[in-house]
Amino acid sequence: MAFLKDTSGSQPFLRVPGIVLWLIIVLLGAHAVRVWIFPQDSNWLFIDYGFVPARYSHAYLTSHWYSPSSLPNPVLPFVTYMFLHGSWTHVIVNCVWLLAFGPVVARRFGSPLLVVFFLLCGAGGAAAHLALNWADANPLIGASAGISGLMAAAFRMLPVETRAAPNTLAPILSTRIIVWTLLWVGVNFVAGKMGLGTGGTGDVVAWQAHLGGYAVGLILALPFDMIARPRGSSGTES
User: Fold this and answer.
1) CA atoms within 13 A on the CB side of 233
2) Can you give the pTM of this predicted structure?
3) Cβ–Cβ < 8 Å for 126, 51
4) What is the 3-state secondary structure (H, E, C) of the chain?
5) What residues pair up with 140 in beta bridges, in sequence order?
6) Tens-place pLDDT, residues 149-177
7) What separation, in Å, do the N-terminal and C-terminal C-alpha atoms of the chain show?
């Protein structure tokens, strides 16, 4: 991962920003709470706080939408599902990926914007999963979609091999981004069909959510970069 260094050249990759470490701690801590505090039956956490597409079916909304106690339910799972994982393998793998790509984005965006960006990419992944798995009763869990968005942004932040201004984001339609995107689509399609990366649990890889989060990351990288770097060369048209 040596190529994923800070684009300013001032910070080695392995000097991890504090916000990335805090996110990792939160992910590990949330899983520890689920496993150790609710060791017998934590399925209700997956149902209540995981992302269940069936929750947005006409039948469910008709019977629950106007109940005061359930008003937050349609919104919260777009974010809370990211902090639930099926196993230690699941959460550790996600933390490793977060450690790989999070520092690049954190150094460029700063801590507050990184968190917002991460959550929006996760929500975008949930939306993509909902669109392609309408009325599915199986809960979506894990931070992979948000991390996929960070990966997409990190790819755009690698040095642009042109005469563009320093720190310019790579265009979405550049050869490099297109190649990486096709590879990521292929990897996720194969993993989704063959169940790779599930840690032997037999769970289904939510590859549509990964790709949804990745797409959101590609698109939002430029506006977030403009917010983070308003006086610099913040990006290119895409």
Assistant:
1) 14
2) 0.83
3) yes
4) CCCCCCCCCCCCCCCCCHHHHHHHHHHHHHHHHHHHHCCCCCHHHHHHHCECHHHHCHHHHHHHCCCHHHCCCCCCHHHHHHHCCCCHHHHHHHHHHHHHHHHHHHHHHCHHHHHHHHHHHHHHHHHHHHHHCCCCCCCECCCHHHHHHHHHHHHHHCCCCCCCCCCCCCCCCCHHHHHHHHHHHHHHHHHHHHCCCCCCCCCCCCHHHHHHHHHHHHHHHHHHHHHHCCCCCCCCCC
5) 51
6) 999 999 999 876 655 566 789 999 999 99
7) 26
Which residues, 6 or more positions from 79, have their beta carbon under 8 angstroms from its beta carbon?
A: 119, 122, 123
Instruction: Find the angle CA(90)-CA(95)-CA(99) to the nearest 5 degrees.
Output: 155
Question: In sequence order, what are the residues at sequence separation of 6 or more whose Cβ sits closer than 8 angstroms to the Cβ of residue 68?
Answer: none
Instruction: Output the furthest CA–CA distance in the chain (Å, rounded).
Output: 59
Question: Which residue type, as a one-letter code, is found at position 152?
Answer: A
Read off the pLDDT of residues 40-74 as tens digits, 9 standing for 90 and up. Answer: 777 888 988 999 998 887 776 666 554 545 556 78
Q: Give bridge partners of residue 51 from the DSSP assignment.
A: 140
Q: What is the length of the chain?
A: 238
**Residue type at 218?**
L
